[in-house]
Structures are given as C-alpha cells and as structure tokens.
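Class prep. Protein, please:
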Amino acid sequence: MDYQKLRDKKSTLIGAVSIAIAATLWGFDGIVLTPGLYNLDVKFVVFILHFLPFMLMSLFLYKRLKYFKFLNTQEKLALFLVALFGGALGTIFIVKALFLVNFKSLSIVVLLQKLQPVFAILLAAIILKEKPKKHFLLWAFIALIAGYFLTFGLTIPHIDKNKNTIMAAGLAVLAAFSFGSSTVFSKKILNKLDFVTATYFRYGMTTFIMFFIVLLTGHLWDFYLVTSKNWIYIIIIILTSGLGAIFLYYYGLKKVKAILSTIMELFFPVSAIFFDYVFNNHILSTVQWISAIILIAAIIKINWDNAHEE
C-alpha cells in the first residue's frame, strides 16, 4: 500500500471539507446572520465586525506586528488597498445590499457576489499586466448576462418599483469588484507574509480605515444602539463566518489545488439558496434557477481555464 498517496488523499479530503465548511458558513452569514443587524448603521457594522476580531487576534498575534516594518512601501500600499477594497468597501457594499432587500432576494445578492473572479482577472490584466486566458471575455460576458436574468428574471426592471432591488444588485456587483480588487492586490503581499499574519494585518488596517469613516460620519458611538440580540449575532459572526471561516478556508487552500477550491467554494451560493428557502421561504423562479446555474458554470469555466493555462 502506498502510504504517501493515502496521506495525500486524506490531506486533500480534509482541505476540501474545510473549504466547504467555510463556504457554507459564509452562506449562512449572508442569509441569516448579517441581516439580523439591519437596525444598525452599515458602516458601524463593518467597523465592529473588524475591530472586535482584530482585538481578539491581538491577544495571540500581537508579536507579529513587528513584521509590518519589514514590508516595503509598495507592499504597505498593497496591504492598505486590500483592507480598503476587500475589508472596508467590499464589506460595506455587500452588507448594504443585504439590508436593502429587506430579507427578500438574499440568495440573489450572494450569487451576484460570485462575479468576483471576473473582476479579479480583468484587474490583474490591467494592473499586473497578466494576459487573460482564452475565451475569458466570452465567459465573463455570459456570467454578467446570467447575473442580470438572475436578478430580474424575464421582467424589465422599473426604477420606481424595483429601486431597492436595482440598488442591491448594483452594490453586490460593486462588492464583487472590490473583493476582486483585493485578490489582485493581495498577490503583492502573500509572498512576504503567511496567511495568518496577512489576515491579522488586514483586519487591523481595515479597523484603522473604518475607525475614521465612522468617526467622520458620527457613528463611532453607536454602541448604545446595539441590542442584546445584535450582540449575539455579532459574536456568532466573529466566531463562525468571520475568523473561523477565514482560517478554515486558508487551511484548506494549502491542501488542495485551485480548481478543487473553486468547486468547494460553490457551497457558498448553494448553501445561500438552501438557507434562504429554509429560513425565509424564498425560492428562485425557473428563469433564476437557469441563470444561477449558467452563472456558476461560467465562473467555474473561468477558474478552470485560469488554473490550467498558468
């Protein structure tokens, strides 16, 4: 018996399951947890969801702060941009989108967020001068069209009647753009920092950015508005879909190939659809189901081509 192959298969299985659990937790967060904070200001929610985990991590990781001085100016700028786009703006956009739909179309908002790889590859081509893979533009166009029909079905949206849906869809796409940007900028620092330190710095930098945003907008002292129920949601988010899911995801990412990771990440939108049905009794229409399948297939194809032509 080849024990090395057996160990490799076991390691791959553990990695795949870790990513699947992390993705499922993100799906649960988007449908059940984050909407439970709708009574709070979006910017304050983003601040608190970064500030508290950063303080918690600091209890164990504070010694890693010394590694910040070893980053050059470009790497520090890249870290700031990761925090700005992936931490601050991306999270503000997606949380605001979830709040806008008022517990309706939550799974659609989550699915639209999966457009992230489209923007990551486009921005990598522009910023890092990486040449997009063959047929990328075709599949990106298909994904965007599928995203439209996923949101509106076969009906023509009316600004007055569908105002919140249109705004939520736009914000979800902006979130995908922001998270895609973060992916591109993170390439400049992940070769210098391990994922634990990079995550710690990202939360710290995002906390720094959001502190000034909530201070300037007058929401820094919104703690008195946080109800006991809100605190329960916040603690669960931090321990599960926040820090817990991030560390599970990166742990799994170290053990599996990129394409397997992409497939396991589909537990995110699939679980979102499931939880949206279980908790909110919402189910996609036939056109939206077809659009969701096409969107997911296009994203898989984009990631597959990207992984196999590198």
